[in-house]
Amino acid sequence: MASNKKNRSDALGGGSNVVAQAGILAAASILSRIIGLLYRSPLTAIIGDEGNGYYGTAINIYTIVLMVSSFGVPSAISKQMAQKMAVGDYKNAQKVFHCSMAYALAVGIAGSLLLYFGAGALVPPNSVPVLRVFAPTVFLFGILGVLRGYFQANQSMLQTSVSQILEQIANAVVSIGAAVLLMRAAAGQGATPEAIRGAMGSALGTGSGVLVALVFMTFVYFKHRGFFLKRVRRDTEHKEEAFGPLMKETILVITPFILSSFILNLTTSVNQTIFMKIMIGTRHWEEVMTTTLYGLFSNKAVVITNIPISIATAVAAAILPNISTSFAQGNIRETRKRSVNAIRMTLIIAVPCAVGLMVLAKPVTMLLFPQWGTLDTASLLLMELAVTVIFYSVGTIMNAVLQSIGRINMPLVSAGIALAIQTVVLFVLILTTDLGVHALVICSVLYSVLIFLIDSRFICKYMRMHLRIYRVYGRPVVAAAVMGAAARVVYELLYRGGTMVADRPYFVNLIATAVSIVTAIFVYFFVLIRVGGLKKNDILQAPKGTKILRLLQKIGWM
């Protein structure tokens, strides 16, 4: 069995090391996010904060429909297939793929039709045409999700990683190009019509990116299809299940994944609706001002925090089939070990990212979104929101662990409880205080903390284990605190000194931020190693771990 798994991974261009696979997917996710940020900055300059607000309003509804239709499909199919392949049942694992594709096609069509014909009831008038551009993407994304889940079930993340990068590149090129062309077509009609057209161009880029990724994944699947079918033909030990019962099983697995993803992200749509309706309808704020403020929150602060959170999403995708396999084989001890390591390694990345965004909020915002008129507000929102990186990242991993061990309804419960509580708090804050958009930040933090606390309780209960506070959480926090102080001092010295020499604040900020981030990385890992948060075995499991360990030993860090 071990030899078969190795051959399978080699054939697909992957590897058996879950840390390496998570690293591949995490690197691709970070690169994709960076590409997204790099094009989002000039795109925001092109379509303006008003256009950005219309885009943000539409994409939140699009995301909710995507959650309901297909967002949880990759995780669900990888879990279900991995459990069957763990016992050598390749015949029915392949049939799960067919059932999942049928499901994705059906709900994808329904979701696309809902967005196109129901746009008027889902978003304010100025965002309706933007939402309609998003409509076909739901259908395409469902098929793409099934193909990605198929390769993830085979514990090969390379294909998904490449498709993510191609998706973002196509998204960037088409978004900017389409926004410019559509805004030129609306020239002279006024600022708002031009902003709407620009937002439509951005939405067209999203769909184009998904289409390019789908073409790539389809090509890769058919390239390896012969290998997959040969594996199925060699499976003579298992009887092929009937399509009806297996389809029912597939739906029962997919549905909790989709519902938990839906509720986890429903908070964005709920908060947007409450904020927009109350501020415009009850407190009589202007629509343009309200939309612009919401755009600063959703398309600047949230977008930046999503970069490190994407690492946790990648780790979750990698560990889900891995933990599902050990659980299906009845190896509870190994399941616990893999779960704790996944949480610990996620914290090692998430904690310094959160601290870094707190202490360098304005420099990072200035670098990525240099719109000077809204810089102070956007950077303050980022600083307030940064702590959610920790709680969302760990919550994502815990959800994957719970789903891997068959407790697929538990993330649904925790998300539902957190959503109910934060919604009540948001109503109270917006109606009774003058916090405005900062009320959204408070509720986002509250929601992430609640998810973390409830899922922690479930993990300890169902896995019958105890997470050591200092060993798992404390060491990264200590190292990140020292790192944050060092990064801030370095930045202040370089920025203040640089502005005295040259009157080019953006480029001085670029250099100061880059140097302070590099300094922060070295300080963080040095302190983390010294406090015992990163050991030799952790480094050896990483890609090129042996070479990294030799280097650390050579310079006296280990």
Q: Can you summarize this structure?
A:
With 558 residues, the protein is mainly α. The chain has helices at 2-12, 18-71, 73-86, 90-117, 119-122, 128-153, 158-185, 191-234, 243-282, 287-328, 332-359, 361-368, 375-385, 388-404, 410-432, 438-463, 469-501, 505-530, 536-541, 545-554.
What does this structure look like?
The chain has 558 residues and is mainly α. The chain has helices at residues 2-12, 18-71, 73-86, 90-117, 119-122, 128-153, 158-185, 191-234, 243-282, 287-328, 332-359, 361-368, 375-385, 388-404, 410-432, 438-463, 469-501, 505-530, 536-541, 545-554. The protein is globular, with a radius of gyration of 24 Å. The two termini are 37 Å apart. Mean pLDDT is 83; it is low at 1-11.
| N/C terminus separation | 37 Å
Number of domains: 2
The overall pLDDT, averaged over residues, is 83
Instruction: Kindly state the number of beta strands.
Output: 0
Weakly predicted, low-confidence segments: 1-11
The helix/strand class is mainly alpha
Major sheet: size, sense and barrel closure?
A: none
Tally of separate helices? 20
Helices and strands in order:
Elements: H1 2-12, H2 18-71, H3 73-86, H4 90-117, H5 119-122, H6 128-153, H7 158-185, H8 191-234, H9 243-282, H10 287-328, H11 332-359, H12 361-368, H13 375-385, H14 388-404, H15 410-432, H16 438-463, H17 469-501, H18 505-530, H19 536-541, H20 545-554
Q: What are the defining features of this structure?
A:
558 residues, mainly alpha, 2 domains, 86% helix
